Amino acid sequence: MRDLYAALLDVIIFWMLTTPHEFAHAWVATKLGDDTPKLEGRVTLHPLAHVDWIGTVFLPLISSLLAGGFLGWGRPVNTNPYKLRWRNGGLLLVALAGPASNVIFALILAGLAAFIPSFSPVLIRAGYLSLYLAIFNMLPVPPLDGSKFLLAANVPAVVYVELSRFGFLLLMIAMFSTGLGAFMQNWSLSTLAWMYGLFGARV
To answer: What do you get for the CA distance between the two ends of the chain, in Å?
Structure first.
């Protein structure tokens, strides 16, 4: 079992990272003509607006403590494809906005870590988790952002609904019974090291 302090720190960082992620979804949806996120109070950077107590706090804490990996999500931003410009194409752009924001945020964190050495351990950890959140959300499993690729590809609705029913189970199996979790960890670390190197520093 991991150290409780380290696991709690991961959860706090993760919660902070879900905020720009979900805000990006809401902001892009609004720009594409859907006022649903605005009506539901999601076009904000307030952390409490985007927290899912199970997906943002409880599950990340348990998975971090017991498995050393990380499984979690923020509260999904509701969108109406019929209000979005380009329908499913717009829905895909909204979905991609979240992971893209995490990649950009990771680059910012890498830069801060390089120029503020005294805070680099926490900033590097936050950058790693930001990249991990980005790649995790690209998995094509509902309700994750990557599942919107299935909708954009016109996968039959019945298939998407069935995947949604078993999405959590599929994620658990993939994360803890295959090499997927290790792959995502390694990708996140190597990408962060590359970003850190852009500023003349090394992890």
So the answer is: 25
Closest CA to 15 of 64, 70, 73, 67: 73
Phi/psi class of residue 178: alpha, beta or left (left: φ > 0; alpha: ψ in -120 to 50)?
Answer: beta
State how far the Cα of 124 lies from the Cα of 106, in Å rounded to an integer. 9
Q: CA–CA separation, 81 vs 60, rounded Å?
A: 30
Q: How many CA atoms lie within 13 A of 43 on its CB side?
A: 14
CA 71 to mean position of chain CA atoms: 10
Place of tokens 């962060």: 192
Residue type, 155: V
Q: Is 40 a catalytic residue?
A: no
Instruction: Give the pair of three-digit tokens for residue 104.
Output: 């950009």
Options 10, 22, 34, 145, the catalytic residue: 22
> Does residue 203 form part of some domain?
no
Domain that holds residue 54: 4-198
Residue 57 in domain: yes
| Each residue's pLDDT tens digit, 136-189 | 999 998 889 999 999 888 888 888 988 888 888 888 888 778 888 889 999 999
> If we measure between CA atoms, which residue out of 77, 72, 47, 92 comes closest to residue 168?
72
CA nearest to 30, candidates 38, 39, 18, 22? 38
